[in-house]
Amino acid sequence: MTDETTARAGREFYTFDGRILEVFGSHPQRFHVRNMDLRVMGPDRKGRRTIVVVAGSPEAPATQHTWHHSAEEWQRAQGLEALLEAVRAGIASARERGI
User: Fold this and answer.
1) Buried-most residue among 39, 62, 72, 91 (CB within 10 A)?
2) Residues 6 or more apart from 56 whose CB is under 8 A from it?
3) What pLDDT digit, counting tens, does each position of 8-54 carry?
4) By the 8 A CB rule, do 53 and 38 touch?
5) Distance of CA 75 to the CA centre of its chain
6) Which of 84, 75, 69 is nearest to 21 (CA)?
7) Alpha helices in the chain (DSSP H)
8) 53-56, long-range: CB within 8 Å, 24+ apart, which pairs?
């Protein structure tokens, strides 16, 4: 069984198992590392951060999903930065292997 990483930030609950990023909230989303790009922007001058997941290949992005977190939400979101780093590593690994 693969280890699962989880984090909660604001109204969203994030989980990553090494291949699939799932974001549970008002509109649950699933993303596979072979078909996504991840960007984390911020903090802005008020400490807010934005997480953007682009579904589709880097050459032909299909849709973009965005989550905004206040400085307070980001501070309380234990494990979110580690989860996002694991997702980035999963994306990079999938690209290196050409899958």
Assistant:
1) 91
2) 35, 36, 62, 63
3) 999 999 999 999 999 999 889 999 999 999 999 999 999 999 999 99
4) yes
5) 16
6) 84
7) 71-76, 80-97
8) 53/21, 53/23, 53/29, 55/31
